[in-house]
Amino acid sequence: MSPELHARRLAAVKLANAVNKIEGVPVSIQAKKLSAQWVRGEISGAEMKAMLIAKHKQS
């Protein structure tokens, strides 16, 4: 993964977490872990979304 793509993904995660915080929505540890994996290119955005949905369905 290029440094530029990594930086864009990291900025996207930080923005998403900030928006959630402003809206009063807590970001779970699981979501933070998945976001970090996505930033590093270990999983795709679709995989991250599917894992988050599966986790929420368990709750």
Features:
59 residues; single chain
Q: What structural class do helix, strand and pairing data support?
A: mainly alpha
Enumerate how many helices there are, as a single number: 3
Count of domain modules: 1
Main sheet makeup: none
Q: How many DSSP-defined strands?
A: 0
**Element string (H = helix, E = strand):** HHH
Q: What amount of the residues lies in strands?
A: under 5%
Mind telling me the C-alpha Rg? 12 Å
What would your notes on this structure say?
The structure is a single chain. The protein is mostly helical and 59 residues long. It has one domain (3-58). 76% of the residues lie in helices and 0% in strands. The chain is built from three helices and no strands. The chain has helices at 3-22, 29-39, 45-58. Helix 1 runs antiparallel to helix 2 and helix 2 packs antiparallel against helix 3. The mean pLDDT is 94.
Short description:
By secondary structure, this protein is mainly alpha-helical.
How do the strands and helices of this protein lay out in sequence?
Blueprint: H1 3-22, H2 29-39, H3 45-58
Protein name: Antitoxin VbhA domain-containing protein
Domain Antitoxin VbhA: 9-55
Organism: Desulfosporosinus hippei DSM 8344
